[in-house]
Amino acid sequence: MSLYRNSRVILLISLTILALVGVWQPWRGWSLELRGITKGLDLEGGSRIVIRLQATQAIIRLNKPIDPQLTSVKELRDYLADALLSDVKVLDVNTSNSEVKVEIGTTVDETVLKGLLENFGELKFISKGVVSSRTMEEVTTTLLNRIDPTGLLGVQARPAGTDLILFEIPAMEPEKAKLLIEKEGKLEAFIEDTLVLRGADIEIIYSPRIHSTDSMYQYEVPLRISAEGAKRFAECSSGKGGYPFVIYLDRPVDALLVFDRALIDRLPKTGPPYPIVTDYMKERKQFYAKSDATHGFYLLVHAVPINPQGLSEEDISVFQEFRKTKSRCILLGDNSSFSSGVVEFLENLFDNRVEFYPQEGMEISDWIFKVCGMQSAPRISEDIAGKEARDVEIEGTRRTEKEATKEANDLKNVLSQRLTAKTSIISTSFIPPRLGREFSEEVKKAALGAVIALVVVLSVRYRDPTIVLLILATMGCELILTLGATAAVRQTMGMAEIGGVLAVIGTGVEHQIIITDEVLRGKIQEYRPRGVRGRVGRAFLTILTAALTTVAAMIMLFFVGFGAMKGFAIVTILGVLIAVIITRPAYGEIVNAVFRRRLEKASSVTEQGQGQKAS
Amino acid sequence: MFLELIRKLGWRKMLMIPLALAIVSSFLILFVGFPLSLEFSSGTLISYRGLENKPDPLSVERLLRGIIPGEVKAEIITDPSTGKFGLDIQTTAVLGENEENQVIATLSSLGLKNPSITPLEPALGRTYRRQAVEAILIASIAIGLCMLFVYKRKIVLLTVPCVLADLLAALGGMCLTKTPLSLASLAGLLLLLGYGVDTNILLTTYALKRFEGEPEERISSAMKTGFTITLTTLFTMLSVNVFVSNPSLDELSTVLVFGLAADLLNTWFLNAAILLWHLSKRKTYHVAL
User: Fold this and answer.
1) Which of A458, A463, A493, A545 to mutate against chain B (most B CBs within 10 Å)?
2) In this complex, do B240 and A500 lie within 8 Å of one another by their Cβ atoms?
3) Are strands B43-51 and A391-398 parallel, antiparallel or unpaired?
4) Between A287 and B239, whose confidence is greater?
5) Closest of A313, A352, A306, A362 to residue A329, by C-alpha
6) Chain B 10-69, CB below 8 Å of chain A: which residues?
7) Residue A298 and residue A283: Cα distance in Å, rounded?
8) Max CA pair span of chain B
9) Helices within A25-132 (DSSP H only)
10) A542 with B122: Cβ contact below 8 A
11) Would you say the pTM of this structure is higher than 0.95?
């Protein structure tokens, strides 16, 4: 059969063309660039983000002796965690003098902590700006998982100083990275004004579900909560069937919302869709939302309406009162929505901690819900009210399926990657490619040198230009196919991944030599049609074993290794699979056909010679 | 040629050369050591922000190399919100007070003022290094299990130390040439794992799965192919090493040149000797039957 009709050869050629188009993407320009490949920090540059971890370490002498089961220590830890809505770690326990060293995942004032500890013991020592290596490691791992959940991006993180972490993120806009890093993942769920669940109560987060409802897309993120949380839910929900169960993520409890008074008149009065913000309660200084026609809830973030053009005496005194408990201010709108005098006053009052939260095309309710961190308000059905329900769902609706999927996945990601310490971003900057333009020139030189070396060794060994050409052509196909597969899985191409590509090409050449040697080992004079194919088959035992072993080793490396090693493992696995499934069988067929043709020619020459002799 | 060599040396002598190489490599790693790159070492970050003019990182690096030991890397950064420039200098040296003052004074001559100096922990810190060692160990176990599954003889488990001996020699080479352990050289070490496995499987297939001729003949036949494939890669890497001045490619090719050269010995002398010894034992057993 002609080589051009051979299915393996056709598969190799067509997939190579497909991969070439995918990697080159000619519709984006004719210049010879690898546009389909996401280049790593070394080749393309990226963002550098420095974050500061906020934690307070304290040594507390307890009023009562510490028992062997550490009950009093656990009580103290849970009490502080509840009171400060933060993670609390016990770093050290000294039973001889009843002293406990704890780390609180946020900044706490000495006076506040002393006040909280009144019934527990005495505060002996407090320090801010020092974070334990355990917390540093936990936060680094969590943020790495948030920014780069699959490990394909090759993000690098390194601790700096006592409380800083430096992230280098290739191929991600600094704004997106900032958003993912800034979210604390602090979950709270309320029934009326009672806090029922906190993030620590979540045991499992299941995969989100998306379905369409009346031209909208609804997402649900199912959660399993702890037995203790379920007990609290039962106590608080007793007799409250139909009430909303309001779930917040990163509720800006330390912030004061400021909005244009005219907004109150623009609020919708009734749904559907629900939930919607219908009112503003002046007495509570909070928005009110309806979860259905008969039930509603207050949004538990303080908000103050103002005239955006100027502040009255009354407004000023309200702000000064709130300044005692709030450390920052969020303005609903953009820079142009408020006069410069108002912004200036608030900046002075809140030590420049003033942020704008523009509407950006959102519905009014969605806008207010979002700024308050309100994620969903599912109805407590009559049959679970008062019962220890352990499965709850966070719901939300978006206009498109893509938006709903993204929102649900981000929510799951942030919830499952809750930070154990509060963080703040110190700086965001762009870093240029490390290896620069001269690197691609060097790579071209290296590739040329490598090909020359290859041609010399293969020519000396085989003294057959056809074989050398075949090996080089197959190597080229393998390179394109591996790059295509790398682009398809969106693996970022950095230094380690280049190593992976080299490994694939290198082993590719090795295997082609094994096949060629195996075929050459049969003597041409003793040509038997099945012989060549059989010898190619024998070579495949070696190749398949080598591939199996490499893939097994690389799978281990993928699961155990870190960023760079993962990239190397992924590229190598892809390349080896492509080689075994596509390139090696095709090369086997090509070599098979070439040698058969030569043998047939040789035998026909012999037959002609014998015929002439006979005649 | 290969057959004569194998017959002349015999499995005992064949073992000697690679074992000696492994001992020398271990000695170099233990007593000479290799430097660590910025990713693996702790150091210092010197940052300048709010610069109106673009600084020249190369002249900064040149100046600092004279006063700071170890690696120095200067990078220009841009602040997306202000559009102003910044300069981040990372060093593998942990600076003392005197060195800090010296650095500040030197760089102020270039118009760089008010830096922030922060000690840096390694990007690939203790946990990652432990994970790297675990990864190599588990990968070795996986290689061993695969070999056992395919060849069904316990002797093939000795392939794993033969492959690891390649890594040992590459690390020894890094000590000799002062090549730092970086992401590039780590990629080279991992690459070597793949190459080492391939040649050892070629040898094992010929030795254990083929039955034509004497074991020495089979191994010498595999040796011809094996030498071709290793020499092809070795010469390729050598050309990269000679023609290219980029540090990353240089580090990667240095590791491979040493590792592949060692692979020739570790596969075709060490592992081949082990398999020959194994096959000679089996032959005696057959005759006794």
Assistant:
1) A545
2) no
3) unpaired
4) A287
5) A352
6) 39, 45, 49
7) 12
8) 89
9) 41-44, 71-84, 110-116
10) no
11) no
Q: Which of A565, A573, A574 to mutate to test the interface with B (most CBs of B within 10 A)?
A: A565
Assigned token pair, A31? 């210049």
Structure-token pair, residue A198: 């906190």
Torsion of CA A549, A553, A558, A561, to 10 degrees: -170
Enter the tokens of residue B198: 């391939």
Domain covering B2-37+125-288, topology: Multidrug efflux transporter AcrB transmembrane fold (1.20.1640)
Segment A517-533 mean pLDDT: 56
pLDDT at residue A129 in the model: 78
CA-based nearest residue to B172, from B105, B85, B266: B266
Interface contact A546-B79, CB threshold 8 A: no
- Among A338-347, A492-501, A601-610, B66-75, the range with the most confident prediction by mean pLDDT is A338-347
Could you please state the CATH topology (level 3) that the domain comprising A3-44+434-609 is classified under. Answer: Multidrug efflux transporter AcrB transmembrane fold (1.20.1640)
Domain ranges in chain A are 3-44+434-609, 56-128, 181-210+223-405
| Partners of residue B188 in chain A, C-beta under 8 Å | 499
Minimal-distance CA residue of chain B relative to A505? B233
- In chain A, which residues have their Cβ closer than 8 Å to the Cβ of B86? 429
d(CA B93, CA A298): 56
Residue A528 in tokens:
């038997």
Alpha helices in A489-583 (DSSP H): 495-521, 529-560, 563-578
Return d(Cα A301, Cα A373) in angstroms, integer. Answer: 9
The position carrying tokens 């006063």 is B67
Residue A174 distance to chain B (closest CA, Å): 9
Sequence letter at residue B25? S
pLDDT at B236 over 90: no
Q: From the CB of residue B20, how many other CB atoms can be counted at a distance below 10 Å?
A: 11
From chain A, the residues in CB contact with B88 under 8 A are: 48, 431
CATH fold of the domain at B43-120: Alpha-Beta Plaits (3.30.70)
- Return the H-helix or E-strand segment holding A374: strand A374-376
Q: What is the pLDDT of residue A469?
A: 92
Residue B202, chain A, CB below 8 Å: the answer is yes
Site from B198, B210, B227, B243 to mutate, A interface, most A CB atoms within 10 angstroms = B198
Structure tokens given for B127: 């946990």
Q: Do A561 and B119 touch (CB under 8 A)?
A: no
CATH number for the domain formed by residue range(s) A56-128? 3.30.70
Domain positions in chain B: 2-37+125-288, 43-120
- Report d(CA A355, CA A374) in Å as an integer: 18
Degrees to nearest 5, angle at CA A414 with A411 and A415: 80
- Cross-strand pairs, A424: A52
Place of tokens 């942990």: B94
Q: What's the mean pLDDT in A19-28?
A: 86
Taking the C-alpha atoms of residue B120 and residue B86, their distance in angstroms, rounded to an integer, is 18
Residue B126 has pLDDT above 70, yes or no: no
- The set of residues, in sequence order, having a beta carbon less than 8 Å from that of B111 and lying 6+ positions away, is B53, B55
Distance of alpha carbon A157 from alpha carbon A165, whole angstroms: 7
Question: Which neighbouring-strand residues pair with A49?
Answer: A167, A428
